[in-house]
Amino acid sequence: MSGINPRSSWPTITSLQTIRSAQHRPRSVHKLTGSLLLPLHRRLSTTPSTAPIIPAALPVVRINPFNTYYHRVFSTSSRTMSDLPLFRELTAPNGTKWNQPLGLFINNEFVKSKSGSTLSSISPIDDKEITTLYAAEEADVDEAVKAARAAFHDSAWADITPEQRGRLIHKLADLIEQHSDTLAAIDTWDMGKPLSVMKEVDMPESISTFRYYAGWADKISGKTLNIGPQKLVYTLHQPVGVCGQIIPWNYPFIMASWKLGPALACGNTIVMKTAEQSPLSVLFFCQLIKEAGFPPGVVNVLTGYGRTAGHAIAAHPNIDKIAFTGSTNTARDIMKTASVNLKNITLETGGKSPMLVFDDADIDQAVKWGHIGIMSNSGQVCCATSRILVQESIYEKFIDLFNQYTKKISVLGDPFSGDTTHGPQVSRQQYERVLAYVEKGKKDGAILVSGGEHPEVNFVAPTIFRDVEDHHVIYQEEVFGPFVVIGKFKTEEEGVKRANATTYGLGAAVFTKDIARAHKVAAKIDSGMVWINSSNDSHFAVPFGGVKQSGIGRECGEYALDSYTTPKAVFVDLGTVL
Amino acid sequence: MFATIKTPTGREYEQPLGLFINGEWVAAKEGQTFEVINPTNEEVITSVQEATEPDVDAAVAAARAAFEGEWSDVTPTNRGKMMMKLAELMEENIELLTEVESLDNGKNLNQARFDIQSAAGCIRYYGGWADKIHGKVIDTQPGTFNFTKSEPIGVCGQIIPWNFPMLMWAWKIGPAIATGNTIVLKTAEQTPLSALVAATLINKAGFPKGVINIISGLGKTAGAAISSHMGIDKVAFTGSTATGRTIMKSAADSNLKKVTLELGGKSPNIIFNDADIDHAVDWANLGIFFNHGQTCCAGSRIYVQEGIYDEFVAKFKERITKNVVGDPFDNSTFQGPQVSQLQFDRIMSYIEHGKAEGATVECGGERHGDKGYFIKPTIFSNVTMDMKIMQEEIFGPVASIAKFKTVEEIAKIGNGTPYGLAAAVHTKDLNTALQLTDKLKAGTIWVNCYNMLHYALPFGGFKESGIGRELGKEALSNYLQVKTVAINMGGHNVFIGK
C-alpha cells in the first residue's frame, strides 16, 4: 500500500507554483483506492526546489584512521565488546525514541554474539555512529540454524494450519503498522533515505507485502495429475526447510518483507542476515515477531558482515535454501559457496536497466519518469533505469529537459527534513565508489552534463553523462548512485540492441505511444520487468527479478512461492498386479 | 427499524429489522412485514421488513451504481482489506451472532459459534484472494499480443438458505466481493436475523454504499424478483433442487443471467467390512444428525457391507441415544428443533411414508416433546432402493440404512439417485477407497470421515445437485468473466476477402 492515489491526490505539475501549493496542501489519501500501483519513489517528483540545497548543519567528517568508518570498512577482525548491553535507548534526530535491541535474534531472544564481536551502525547523514551492536560470526550462524531447524520440525510451527500461519503474518502486519513511525525514523537515520519516503512508500509497501503473503498461506495447493486409471498421482507443495536470507541496505524493511513474507507463508524457518549498513530496523522488528506469536526459532535475524556471517550462511550444510539480494559479484560468491550442499538458490542482483525513449513519446512524461527511475533513493535501486537511450531526433531536446528538470526537482539535504527528496549515499564507501565512476566516465570520453560534484560528504549531486557508448565503463557497470548515462539510437532495432548490450537484465522502460512498438519492444528486451511509459513500478503482487546476470528466480507475487516450496510427487498404485 | 431483543442467556441487543440497501436501513416500499418464529418454542421473536419487487429494484439500482462507480476504483488489495476488517468485526461480535443464530435457527450454541467462526474464516480467506486473481498472456503467433483479464460479472443476486444462515452468507459474499462484484442478497424467510445483525458490520468494514445489500423476503416474491431481474447479471442460489430449477428457468426467461446452484442431495455413506466400526458409527451419526439432518450433503443413505451390517446397526442405535435433543441454549444439547412447522410436517410425512412402505423403524420415528419442532433421531433399516425415503431428500434427522456386498454393487447403488452432492467411504483399504472415489458421481467424497467442510475445499454437486462450485479458488470463477484482448502488432494477416 503506497497510501497515495495518483488519480485523486496527485497534483498536475504545470508550474513550480502549482507544485509548491500542492506540497502545502494536506495530502489526501483516498480511503478506497489508496494502494494503486506506484513507482517506489514517485512522491519525490513533486517536491519543489530551485537548486540543490545542502543544509549547512551537516558536519564535514574528516577521515582519520580511528573513526568508526575506517573501523567498519577496513578492520579485519571485529572488536570485541561483550559488555555491550542487549538494549539501548536511542533518539533519532527527529525526536523519535525507542529501545533498540543490539543482540542477535535467535529463538525469539536477543543474545550476545558468542565471541563478543560487534559492529557499528553509522548514519550516513553525519557519518557518526548510532550505536554498536553485536555481530554474528560462524558460531552464531550455527546457533541460529540449529534454532531454525528445531523450529521447522517442532509441532508449534510444523503442525499449525495454513490458516493459522496466515493469521500470524496478518498479526505481524498489524504490529508493524502500529510501530510504523518508529521503523521509518530508524531507517532514515540508519541509511539516509528521506523520512517522508519511508513513511509513504517503504512502510506501507512492507506492510502490504506481509498482508499479501498472509493471504497466500492457505492457498498453496498441490495438484493431482491424471496419468491413467492405474495410478493416483498427486503433488505436495512442502516448505523447503531452513532458509538463509541475506538482504541489502537500500530498502532495509521492504527487502525484509519480500523475503520473509513468502518464506513464512509457505511454512519455512529462517535465518536472515541484515546488511551491516542498516541493521537497526529489522532488529527492532524482531520484537514484533515474538509479540505476534511466532514460535521460537521460526525467524532468526543476525546482524553481521557479508564476509563472515553471510559467508557462513551460504556455506552452512544445514541450510536448505539461500536467497540473496545485493551485488552481482557477491551473488557469484554465494552461488559458488552454496554449491557445498547444493542449496536451492534465488538471487536478485544488480542491474543496468535501460530506458528507451522513442521520438513519438510524451517527452515531458519521459523526463519525469526518467528522473524517478534513476534519482529516487539517491540512485540506490537495483532496477534503476540508469541508461537512458533516446531516439536521435529528440536526443538534444531530451537531454536539455532532463537536465533542467533534475536541477529543479532534486532536493539534497537532511533526510529528516520534509523538503528533502535526495539523501546521502548509504556510506562513505558507496559515496566514494559513485564519485570514482565520474572519473571513469570522463576518461572514456563521455560528456558530463551536470553533477559529478560531491557538495558534502556522502552526498552526490544528480549526475548526468551524455554521448555514452556501449564500451564505456559507465555504460556497462552498475554505479548504484544518482548517476545516469544517456546515449542515442536511430532505429527500433538499434535501440533494442543497445538496450541489451550489457550483462544485466533486471528492468527496462519503453516510452512510445505506438501500441505495436510498445509490446514488441517489451518482448524483445532482455529483462525481468518492463515498464511501458513509466519506470520502476513495483508491486508486491507482481514478480520481480532478473534475467542474465541480474538474478535467478523471482520475488513477489505468486511466483515467489515457487522459491519457498518444493513439490513432492506421490504415486499411488491402484492395483497393478505384477 | 430496530427492536430490542432478549436472548435466552439474558443478553439484550438491538436487532435491525429493515432492509439494508445502499448502506442504510430502509422500510419495505409496500409496507409488508413477516414474523420470525423461534423454532424451539414456536413463539414470535419479532417481525422484519419484507422486501418485494420494488425493494429488489431499489437494491439492484444501489448495487449497479456501486458497481459502475466507487467500487470499480477500489484496488484489489483494498477490497481484501475491507474483507479482513469484516472478518475481524464478525469475530469481535461472535457471541452476539452465535446467540442470534441459535435463537432464530434452533441450532445449538456450540454449533452456531463454530458456524460464525467458519464464516469469518471464509471471509478472511476470500479477502486474501482479492489481489491474487490473474489473467493470462497467451502466445499465438509473432506480431500479436493476446491477454485475458478476469473481470467481475456485475450485480449478483444471491439467495441463501436457512440451515446455515451466517455460513451461507459468508460463502456467497466471500468470492463475489473478492472478485469485485456487487451484491443483492436475500436471506431465508425462516432465518433473517443473524444476517441483519451482520449487515451492521458492513459499513464499519469500510465497504462503499451499495456494494452489499441484504434483504429479507419470501422466495416467491423477492426471490422470484431477483432471479427474473433484468438488471442482475448473475444469480447464485443454495436451496432445494425444485427451487433451483425454477430459478434457472426464470434466469433463462429474463436475461440469461449466469446461474450457480448448490442444491439438494441424497448422499451415500458407505461402510466396508474392514472399516474401524466405532469411528464409522461416529461419522455416520455426524453425517446424518449434524444440524438436525438439515444439511444438503447429509449422509442420509447409509450402506453397510453385509459382514458388519448387524453389528453396525446395533452400535449406531446405541450411539444415537447419546444425542441430546432439546433447547439449543443448553450446552449439552446436540440436536435442536427443526427450523419451522413446514419442515417439521414435511419430515414427519416422510417418516410415515417409510413406515407405510415397509421399512423397519429401528428408533425414533416420532416427535420429541410437545412444544417446538423437535423430532427424535430416526433410523430406518431394511430400506430398499425404490422407497421414497431412499430416493428423496428428507432434510431432517432421518437415516435410511441398507446392506451391500461388493464394490461394484455399491458403486451402482451409490449413484442410484438423481443427486450427486457428496459421498463417503469408510475402509482401511487404500485401493477400495480410491477405486470407489473414482466411481462415485459426487462433488465431494469423504474417506473415513463425513461433513468435513473447509473454505479452501471446493463444494458443489454433480448431476441434479448443482451447477458450479462454492469455496476454494474454484468459487472465484463463478464470479468472474474472462475478457480476451488480441492486439495486432503487424503479425495478423487479413483473412477477409481471401
Helix-strand category of chain B: alpha/beta
Total number of helices of chain B: 15
What is the CATH topology assignment of the largest domain in chain A?
A: Aldehyde Dehydrogenase, Chain A, domain 1
The biggest beta sheet of chain B, please?
7 strands, mixed
Q: Give the number of helices of chain A.
A: 19
Main sheet strand line-up of chain B: 16-17-18-15-14-20-21
Query: What's the gyration radius of chain B in Å?
Result: 24 Å
Oligomer: heterodimer
Number of domains of chain B: 2
- Which word captures the global form of chain A? globular
CATH class identity of the largest domain in chain B: Alpha Beta
* Shape descriptor of chain B: globular
What's the β-strand tally of chain B? 24
As a percent range, the share of strand residues of chain A is: 15-25%
Across the major sheet of chain A, the strand order is 17-18-19-16-15-20-21
CATH superfamily of the largest domain in chain B: Aldehyde Dehydrogenase, Chain A, domain 1
Number of domains of chain A: 2
Strand content of chain B: 15-25%
- Overall pLDDT metric of chain A: 88
Distance between the termini of chain A: 59 Å
InterPro entries (chain A): Ald_DH/histidinol_DH (IPR016161), Ald_DH_C (IPR016163), Ald_DH_CS_GLU (IPR029510), Ald_DH_N (IPR016162), Aldehyde_DH_dom (IPR015590)
Domain Aldehyde dehydrogenase (chain A): 110-570
Pathway (chain A): Alcohol metabolism; ethanol degradation; acetate from ethanol: step 2/2
Active site (chain A): 348
